[in-house]
Amino acid sequence: MDYSSILSCCLAFILYSNTFEAGFVYDDRRAIITNPDLQPSTPWLDIFLNDFWGTPMSDSGSHGSYRPLAVITFRLNYLLHGYEPFGYHLVNVILHVIATGLFVKITKKILPKSIADTSATISGLLFAAHPIHTEAVSAIVGRADLLSAIAFMLSFLTYVSHVKYRNIYYFTPEYSAPQYDLRFLKKWQKDILKTASIKIVKKSAEININTQRRKTTYVYVKVWSHFVASIVLAVVGMLCKETGICVLGVSFIYDLIITSYAKQKQHRSLLLLSLCTLATLSARFYGGITPDFARADNPTAKEDCLLTRTFTFLYLPVFNFLLLVYPHPLSFDWSMEAVPRVTGVLDPRNSVSLIFYGTILTTLYVCYSRMIPQKGKHCMKHKMVTIKTNQRNKKETSTQCAFCHETFTNLHSSTCRFANNNNNNNNTWSACDCMAVTSPRKNLTFEGTIIFSLTLLVIPFLPATNMFFYVGFVVAERLLYLPSAGFCLLFGLFAASCWKRYANSRKHFSVVFFVVLLALSAKTVWRNFDWYDEEALFRAAVPVNPPKALGNLGSVLNTAGRLREAETAYREALAYKPNMADVHYNLGILLQSEKRLDEAILSFQRAIHFRSTLALAYINLASVLVEAKRSEEAVNILNQVAMLDGTGLKDRRQHDSAKVSALIQLGDLYTEQGRLHRALEIYTEAATSIPDHYPRQKVFNVLGRTLYLLNRHEEAERWYRAAMRAGPDNVASYIGYGKLIARNVSRSSEAERWFRKAQKIAPNDPAVYHNYGEFLVYRHQFSEAADMYEKAAELAPDDYQLSVAAAIAMRQASRPLEAEKWYRRAVALKPTDAQNLSNLGAILHLNGKYKEAAKNYEASLQLEPNDSITLTNLNRLHSLMT
Question: Where are the transmembrane segments (predicted)?
């Protein structure tokens, strides 16, 4: 039983079990909740045409992250349990457990036998508990890294098996001898007389060859089937995340180490591996669009000074390595100035970089030097010389390598030994082409393991180094999931060596390792709580990246209704970095909700100034301008949205949707101004530019409404029907269509059916009952209408207009006591409205509550002293009271 794997996997599961109750945080929302590729309406094939976030790969705004297999797992999660986070987190934890088990298996496969078990246990526990993995496991979007790592490890293990069977095929005499025996026999037939004894030998050899050939074919198939499987798994890993392809480079280095003395045929694998790597990379990047990231994502990439770029990019891998050594602090985001750039030669971080790279190069040189073979230890297809001994003295015949003179009698096949036996022939010469070679090691040496560990640490990280292309981040913790395997392997190797060498200090060593493991485990569990919700995540990142963390924290607090805290967070973020358009935009929304219109206008204008393509800022600015009675300015702002270019934007879908929304808002503004024909032109323009992901029924519905107002009823009916087809659950379309056909008395019953259908679809929508009530009033069914109005007001108790409508309906239905109830509600909602007070006084007057009615009349007159209706009603009341 593999106790190392069981122990490591159990630890991995236990440490991350506290993520099961976590929600969707940060990038999870964009990758899952707003990703159209998860919706059943999206064809499965589209997943292979879009990037990780659901944007077409051909779009200029695509992130370029092609991970269709990871998206497919998200979609399967969605089909099973929708947007319930538990299932998504459970899958991530299981994947981490699987990756941990595979890592332990790799460790045992390659480490020297003498320390394999100890090193595998230490490395596996460290890999299971390392806090650097929390982002990959706790954040659902980290699944791409987990899947890629699993495919990476499976591909490598399969390649290890390929090397094993290849070495059996080429280095084991039982499999390699037959091909040489045939050649030997042909040469023998030419040079030696054909005698009866020779025929017997030939027949025996042919039987042996046929048996060996079958065995050889079986091994040969295993050699190349494992090779092909390794390549396929590498491609699978790349389709989970781009770094999966790096396994081919790791396998290449492993092969060089394990068969560094093999003859040239063994390098066929390396040649094919190189060709497969090039072909896969070409297929991945052919025709692809290199995304253009914002300056804040990777400031160094936009730096003009070459020295600053060079020194900083050389230091960032060192910084990542230090996070592996000491994983504190950790942050969801390391963009902007979270890691200050190295701007000069005298920066002390350059010394750290020099020591880091010098240490790696020195280690590689020393290890490679110690691996250089010594003469006579590895012989490869040298000419074999048979040494003839005196037949009379019955001495053995031995065979030597012509190069190093080592004796290899035991490596000959039975046929070959028989053919070289001097008792069968007194010939003084024979040639043997059997492989006199020591079989390659099945496990790496200590030095080879160090080289391999550094390979596993470095190669998967190469795509993130900005060496080949600029990336959209400074540091990304989840990208260290695979490189951390090399770090853990290296740690386990040295720890196991110390365990073996210093046997008397094992007790102390165990205590130290237990303390380290306990500290790492505690850090992992604690960090998982940071990923529990967005507020905890962003607060934890404030010391590392204040502007980004505070800006996001403000959005979370704003959504939670904690407006004062949210405003403080927004303003602190802007104090660190004043040019963050998103933060200005979010602050503007907060100020708009508090009716601080002038401040909101200023915030939206700043957002547009710092990012002129932020379409949502234009729309909200126009809304605020309308509220501020500056409609002409709002019209100008909305007209600008139509001219915005969305090329290269990260979220192209949002931008295109905002442009259509701006047209609808502009049309609504013209409708309010009574410019219906102009509004119709704008709505028609919106209908011709609807993106696939936008709800088409919304545009069709406003077209139907406008045509209805223009008395073009037939056209309006066509658009309303189109809206109902586009969105069968769109309540506004049913209500609008019902109001349209209700004008025709002969279709009154049909209209009522549409109102009832809307009521069935949205039983808790106040607008449904309000419009149904209007329809019933039109039919003079006042009592039923009053019930509908009352239901609408109950569903929206804070809606002033609905309360007034309910009161009026009760009065029309001759239910004055219930009308009094709703007039009181209206006064409570707007106590300083003179009309409200006057209406309440009138219903109290009607209900015989004269004193209270007089008080409300008088309060109304204090607000509007010259209101003739209130004065008349008050005089009548005084007449009754006297």
Answer: 86-104, 146-165, 223-240, 245-262, 306-326, 354-373, 450-473, 479-499, 511-529
